[in-house]
Design brief:
rod-shaped; 7-stranded mixed beta sheet; about 350 residues; alpha+beta; about 55% helix
């Protein structure tokens, strides 16, 4: 049955020592199928059969003793073990007795961050070893197909199994990129409605995740290219076309990643332009208000001098008029109305 993936937040911290360790062996050929779980590593290794595909999967790299026993049994180099147990960029390496591949397995976007783990594979003549950091993966349906003998997996060797698991991982990159595309559209709509600091933080987070994807995809392209040029004989020439298809998918993902990178940069430009436009609108409104009050301030200043004398030639007769105050106020109101109509005629606001 497919195992449900445990929801986790992206983190590079080592797994706690009390985390669950899952060790399983799926063994098959065209006629037989067996699966072993929850066995000590020594007993599990004892079930390995020649002329069968032996898929050993380990979830939980904090159990160094299990990793070391697998390394001792399959004669894995110490530097290879170090690459398995540490965070490493995707790569492929050829050894005398096996082929090594490590890459990032992405799950989804969780609160703006990509939930991922490193997964490593060791491909030998009759076996495939997979090392995962966390409990759960994307291979539940593949396990069911192997058990039910659906498709061509049971008719092929371990190199085809490696292709299938890598293809599943790469296909899920599309789901993560699609989620990023949806986030870009959502942020763009929010920016046009109301630009806030939250959108700025979301854009910065998207840029970080795109940088992470770039670091995961570009080395993976080189790793797949190296596998396509494999001369060690671990990949059946008939199956190279499948690996070429995965390589094409990785190249397409890189093109999509570059597109999303440009869109994210465009989001930042939209955000800044929206803020500038809003600031210009505020300044324009304040300028209009200040301009309207300029003549009113002049009038109020003139009458605020209170020059009132019967002997003055420059007498202000309206000061003695019972209607002087409402007349001046009405005149000031007419000025305001005239200025507003003029501004609207000029389409200044």
């Amino acid at each position: 049955m497919a195992r449900k993936k445990k929801l986790v937040v992206r983190s590079n911290d080592p797994r706690p020592s009390d985390s669950k360790v899952i060790l399983e062996l799926i063994q098959y050929d065209e006629k037989e199928y067996s699966m072993y779980q929850d066995l000590p590593i020594t007993e599990l290794i004892a079930h390995i059969k020649l002329n069968h595909v032996n898929w050993i999967n380990l979830d939980g790299l904090h159990e160094k003793s299990i990793v070391q026993k697998l390394a001792d049994h399959f004669c894995l180099h110490s530097l290879l073990v170090e690459d398995i147990t540490s965070d490493h960029q995707p790569k492929a390496e050829e050894y005398d007795d096996f082929l090594f591949l490590t890459l990032k397995m992405l799950y989804r976007i969780d609160e703006g961050k990509i939930d991922y783990e490193q997964i490593s594979f060791v491909l030998g003549k009759d076996y495939l070893l997979s090392f995962q950091e966390k409990e759960g993966d994307l291979f539940g349906l593949l396990r069911d197909r192997i058990r039910l003998d659906q498709g061509r997996v049971r008719k092929k060797k371990a190199d085809y199994l490696l292709y299938r698991v890598v293809d599943i991982i790469v296909d899920n990159y599309y789901n993560v990129l699609d989620a990023i595309g949806e986030q870009i559209e959502t942020i763009e709509d929010e920016i046009y409605k109301n630009s806030t600091e939250t959108q700025f933080k979301n854009i910065q987070q998207l840029k970080k995740e795109l940088i992470f994807l770039r670091k995961a995809l570009y080395p993976l392209r080189d790793a797949m290219s190296k596998i396509l040029k494999d001369e060690s004989g671990f990949i059946d020439p008939v199956n190279l076309r499948y690996y070429a298809d995965v390589y094409d998918h990785v190249v397409h993902l890189i093109d999509s990643l570059d597109t999303y990178k440009d869109l994210t940069s465009g989001l930042m430009d939209i955000y800044i332009n929206t803020l500038n436009t809003r600031m210009n609108e505020v300044i324009k409104v304040l300028t209009v208000i200040s301009t309207i009050f300029m003549p009113l301030t002049f009038i109020v200043g003139v009458y605020g001098m209170n020059f009132h004398t019967d002997k003055s030639v420059w007498n202000m007769p309206e000061l003695d008029s019972p209607y002087g105050y409402p007349i001046v106020m009405g005149f000031m109101l007419l000025i305001v109305i005239a200025m507003i109509r003029y501004f609207k005629f000029k389409k200044w606001f």
